[in-house]
Amino acid sequence: MRVSRTTGRALALVVFTGAVSLPAAVPAGATTGAPEPALLADLNHDGHVTPADAQATGEEAIFLPNLDDSRRRCRVDPADLDALGAEADARLAACNDAADAVVNGEDDDADLARLRLRAMPGVSEGATGELSVDAAGADKIRVFARRDGGGFRPLLPEGGGRISAAELRQGLELGVEGRDVVRDANGWDGRVTITLTVKDGASRSVAEVRMREAPLLLQNDLQPAVEVVAGKPGRGSGTPPSVEVPEPRDWGSFSKTLRKATRQAGLADPRFISGTSRWWRDIWWQDIFEPTTASMPAPGGTRTMRILVRSGNVFTAPGQDGQLQATPRPLARLIFRDLRGPGVGVVQQFTVSRRDVITDMRNATGNVESLPPYDSHPQGRLVYGTGQVRQPDPAFVRLLTGMGQGLQQPVVLDTDWLLVGHVDETMHVVRARNQRGWTLMVADPRLAVNLLRKAKAAGDGKAQLFTGTASAEQPTVDAVLANSELMADNEKAAGHIDEQIAVMLAETKLRASELVRVPVLFHRADPDGQLMRAYTSGVPNGLSMNAHEFAAPRSARPGHQGP
Q1: CA spacing 20 to 30 A to 217: which of 32, 104, 527, 559?
Q2: Cβ-Cβ contacts under 8 Å for 384 (sequence gap 6 or more)
Q3: Which of 370, 282, 298, 367 is nearest to 333 (CA)?
Q4: Domain final position from 213, 235, 265
Q5: What gap in Å lies between CA 471 and CA 279, rounded to an integer?
Q6: Smallest Cα–Cα separation from 180: which of 348, 381, 342?
Q7: Which one has a higher pLDDT value, 58 or 561?
Q8: Where are the alpha helices (DSSP H) in 290-430?
Q9: Cis peptide bond upstream of 328, omega within 30
Q10: Phi/psi zone of residue 105: left (φ > 0), alpha (ψ -120 to 50 degrees), beta?
Q11: Model confidence over 452-511: pLDDT tens digits?
């Protein structure tokens, strides 16, 4: 499942206070009597473009990556949902509000960052103006101009940036949209310099303004949920044999208890979305996208766009001719159909190549989490897992580490020992009454073993685990404790989690005594008997609904009969 969360004004605005070297308007090359143009932008971040912004030198105005679909014009052909190969995925991702040179209604209008060309009444009828963008940002933005008292029309790159003498004399309102996001920390950094050049006879003068695209910031588990989305099995025949997705069980019980949890938290019922006809067993919505927000100051408050970062999963699937094709995870195509729309966009970046299933699991967004703001990290941090043997797709990692423009520095954990390889299997951020207001819930195999020993000592050795579920295996407490191999597995898992905890304590300065430890048993689950996954409920892999309520997976405590 996946949760959307709110974001606050203060959190949005703190992003945009970095110092820069250029003032907002820099007349250059002006001769005596020549006009001095000025481009005004919202440099003081109050949501308005006014003469006061000219005093906010050294700041950058903010614009949004305009990747939503304000008029829901982007259609998804049902045939694309199960198509093999990556052509459908490229086509789906290419449609958004910035893909055309049109302002798509009032919502799209509000997504444009405003600039104002100050009126220059003294220019002659032969004067000309030209707007340009630095080479690094030339293909990253589009500029519109409100002309003839009407709506916005494209000025740059369409229109060549040309501004008439009449428009120079009257002044001009401009709107800026981002056409993409930062995809690599070593590439474009999200900044653009927009230059206005005015020529009038022999005189030439220039004004510049610097802008920055709003970074994509991962939401965190301290933000209250506003919507819960989960998968629902469809009626298809299953998955290709090369993609081993377990058949969902107990979905009726899961959906019932999830509804109960959302209602208790004061939320609307979850939105359940069925899988595609061929890929119906793949219902793991937690693993197909990670929600982020991009925000800019706007009249009346903050303008926020939600950008869903698609997972980097690529399946290897056979076509009708039996030939295997690298196919981006089909379930994730549903986010274009069911979630993209006004105020919600989707970005993706992955290498389309055949890979083994276990390695590819590292590219799911269950392996992408975040830490809330703390100390020297006012926007929080990205957390993801990797290893020496299996790593996420480098292209996917470049997107994750680049999109925040350095504001959410990554913490990297070793998940090589896990079959699925996700950081959400062992840790979850929860609120706490400590200095920073949060701590980590961590899976603790030793605690789980000790609880079983206490149950045995209390005379409950014959009690069974997993009762009331569809699990074919329902061992007794005695049987679990007598399984020496399982006990050794859990001591080994505990050692790996100790290493993860050491990294997190060093990075966050949390104390070990502040951690919330929850009982989880692990077992070896891969064909080679080396990799592990949860044997009992993966308690950390739950949902933070609000400041006080955490929806945990069903307990596996001995003799437990239901939710």
Answers
A1: 104
A2: 367, 368, 369, 392, 397, 400, 410, 412, 413, 423
A3: 282
A4: 213
A5: 23
A6: 348
A7: 58
A8: 334-338, 357-360, 394-402
A9: no
A10: left
A11: 999 999 999 999 998 887 788 899 999 999 999 999 999 999 999 999 999 999 999 999
Phi, psi of 398 (to 5 degrees): -60, -40
φ and ψ at 396, to 5 degrees?
-65, -45
CATH assignment of the domain containing 208 = 2.60.40.1700
Cβ neighbourhood burial of 235 (10 Å; 0-12, 13-18, 19+): exposed
Residue 12: which pLDDT band, with cuts at 50, 70 and 90? Answer: very low
- Name the amino acid, one letter, at 504: M
Strand, helix or coil for residue 227: strand
State the pLDDT at residue 318: 82
Cα–Cα distance for residue pair 240/110, rounded to 1 Å: 44
User: Could you tell me if 76 and 337 are in contact, meaning their C-beta atoms sit under 8 angstroms apart?
Assistant: yes
Q: What is the residue range of 120's domain?
A: 16-77+97-213
Alpha carbons 176 and 41: distance in angstroms, whole number:
10
DSSP code string of 76-100: --HHHHT-SSSHHHHHHHH-SGGGS
Burial of 492 (0-12, 13-18, 19+ CB in 10 A): middle
Interval 268-289 mean pLDDT: 89
Assigned domain for 329 exists: no
- Number of structural domains in the chain: 2
385 token code pair: 């897992």
> pTM for this structure?
0.92
CATH number at residue 432: 3.75.10.10
Q: Kindly state the tokens that stand for 114.
A: 């405003």
d(CA 349, CA 353): 13
Q: Give the span between the Cα atoms of 308 and 329, in whole angstroms.
A: 15
Judged on CB neighbours under 10 Å (0-12, 13-18, 19+), 418 is buried
CB-hemisphere CA count at 13 Å for 219? Answer: 26
- Report yes or no: 499 and 414 within 8 Å, Cβ to Cβ: yes
φ, ψ of residue 543 in degrees (nearest 5): -125, 130
pLDDT tens digits for 49-75?
999 998 887 789 999 999 999 999 999
End residue of a domain, out of 213, 231, 265: 213
Q: What is the DSSP string of 16-63?
A: G----SS-S---BSPPTT-----EEE-TT-SS---GGGGG-TT--EEE
Residue 237: CB atoms within 10 A of its CB come to 9
- Please give the Cα distance from 444 to 516 (Å, whole number): 9
**Tokens 């369409």 map to which residue?**
158
